[in-house]
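Re: that chain you flagged

S.,

Sorry for the slow reply, it's been a week of failed gels. I finally had a moment to sit down with the sequence you sent. For the record, here it is as I used it:
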Amino acid sequence: MNKFWRYLIYIIGILLIFSITSSLIRVVKKNYDLKLQVATLKQENDLLSAQNQELGYEINYYSSASFQDKEARDKLGLQSPGEKVIILPSDQRSSGQSNNSSASLSKSNFQQWLDFLLGR
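Prediction finished late last night. Pasting the structure tokens below so you have them in one place:
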């Protein structure tokens, strides 16, 4: 009977060590996973902070007088007092002129002189 109790104590001891080791491994793994999660959340927090700061800069810019002045000039065609505005021809006129010039180039030199002298 003495051997039986000794084997029983060894078996219980081995089961107890196995149980403690497996629970320790689970705790260490969970701790590692939580550290990874914390690192990921810190990166997301830093990214969101940077985006928030960038949006703050944009809000300040859009509410500034220089932006409002620029938008008034671009969208409404306003100008400052004493400022001179140069109006350039649109693309449609310039393409129409290029069509006329290409048509005149297709005519002979003599025909172009005749058109000029006769006012055509």
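What I noticed first: The mean pLDDT is 86.

Talk soon,
D.
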